[in-house]
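Give me structure tokens for this 243-residue protein.
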Amino acid sequence: MPVSLVTGSSGAIGAAIARRLALPGTTVVLHYHMHRARTDALADQIAALGARPVPVGADLSDLGAVDRFAEQVLAQVGTPQRVVHAAGVHQFALVQELPLSQWRNLQDVHLGAAYRLLAAFLPGMIRTGFGRVLLIGSVFGLRGGAMEAGYAAAKAGLSALARAMLGEVGRSGVTVNVLAPGAVATPMLDRLSEAELEDLRAAIPLGRLADPEDIAAAAAFLLSEEAAYISGCTLPVDGGYSI
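Here you go.
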């Protein structure tokens, strides 16, 4: 039975990707941290689509917990053929005002967890000759963002990690790519006023915020068998904002 795994599945983007991967007869591992109720609701949706949901909780800011999470997944469902790292945390602060603990949290959740998940699941993917890994980055990892230094640095690191994987798994049938969403209509933008949101829309060539389904559609392609010749890339899904 094909197995997919989505970290951060209780978030809007993670949930949208999980639903895309929920094909009849497949298993979808739904990672969550603090939002079990959301994950249970998503599991019901996954089951209604004919897939088997497997919720697994873990705090990905603790890299030891990431390793234990991966061990639990391997024990319950084996090596996933598709792994999406969509879990994330955010910050909005001047770099000189960002506590070191928060900087480390940003790096561990985004970049450290990605490294540990790759270490756990790549061996099984390589043995079978197939695997798709997708890391959810950000447009801020491409162009930076004032008052988002820690977040931007962590997201940029994901792109470097994916490129590095070319030399390690390039001929194995495993691909590692990054999606870099721009402004997406999720709770992350709740801190913005309506005027600020309108300014943001005006700065996007396509004239609107992304919907989580826009990100999920791009993810579905990069996770498909048809994307076998794409690896090490960072694909902006931002309505042209980064151009």
